[in-house]
Design brief:
two-stranded antiparallel sheet, about 30% helix, eight-stranded mixed β-sheet, homodimer, about 210 residues
Chain lengths: ~210, ~210
Amino acid sequence: MARILITSGPTREYLDPVRYLTNASSGRMGQALAEVAVKAGHEVVIVSGPVEIDYPEQAQVVSVVSTEEMLEACREVFPRCDGLIGVAAPCDYRPRKTARHKLSKTGRGLELHLVETPDIVATLGASRSQGQWMVAFALETEDPRIRAVQKLERKRCDLIVLNGPAAIHAATTAVEVLDRRGTVLAALSGGKREVAEGIFRIIEERLLGR
Amino acid sequence: MARILITSGPTREYLDPVRYLTNASSGRMGQALAEVAVKAGHEVVIVSGPVEIDYPEQAQVVSVVSTEEMLEACREVFPRCDGLIGVAAPCDYRPRKTARHKLSKTGRGLELHLVETPDIVATLGASRSQGQWMVAFALETEDPRIRAVQKLERKRCDLIVLNGPAAIHAATTAVEVLDRRGTVLAALSGGKREVAEGIFRIIEERLLGR
């Protein structure tokens, strides 16, 4: 049986002690994939941003807030895993600095300098060992397939799961699973648990078996 | 019996179809206040941003996403109410524009121009009628009491409830209730339901009875 790292949920990047940048990722797809992997007898470690859902009891959960923290936790865990399913939606911009006190309104607005956060999957991909496999998720609103395959290449993944903004925080989803050549291996839609089963079947066939 | 408007939860201000500015307000304090008010036999209308909790069935709930939408809903509802409890934590900055497509990382970062969103309680306060009462919440990390009383004045409220960042998304809280003269009427701490009962007792004594 395999040891699988699943990243899940959003991350937050704070401007001050109260306000932050994020997205509406609920962690439900990560939850569904963890349930399916646990049920299939695999050992699952989940590195998750702040979510309101419960992960399966059999999984080990590492809770993080920011993208940097998520990367740090993954770098710790991934070397001892067989593969990664990167379904988290890490916030990819952060304020250059975080104010120590809550910013007060001045009537004038605010210029916010955002810097890019590290790409977690790409960072793990750059140092993956020969035997490790990686599955990334991509959410694109423009030229989705082309961008997804570019991401797969850049992040050195084996498969990429492409979804749209409608999937965020929804009970249902519609995804395409693409390989390195851009071939659509499957188009899956329905409840997140059902779609997770379809994705995991492809992972078992193509990656766990090899 | 009174008709009470409760604003609750956070709001979101989107940069693009996926990313937004927000805060971790869970809506739990709004939920607790609504429960207490409903139990006391009052009619409750809740205007709420995106939350994961359930409001009491007897309350009417208007769901909104952005601060502008929250204000619009409140302007519609408040003229037919006796009072307002403004416990929402509306996002008070929004990007000057929202990108139609998800912003792609360029390696360079991003300059984000934020403008202030309208102050919901202050806007309602400016046009409140003689008989209406208003209770605001303030979350301050610096000079909390002074700033809270300044807010109370500016927003033309009758009472202000002061809390700290530790209250956000927590089960428990610690608050002070201040009147227009800056007098601390009560310091309450404990579970949010218990604190909500204490706050509502003061509202009943000072505002509902008058």
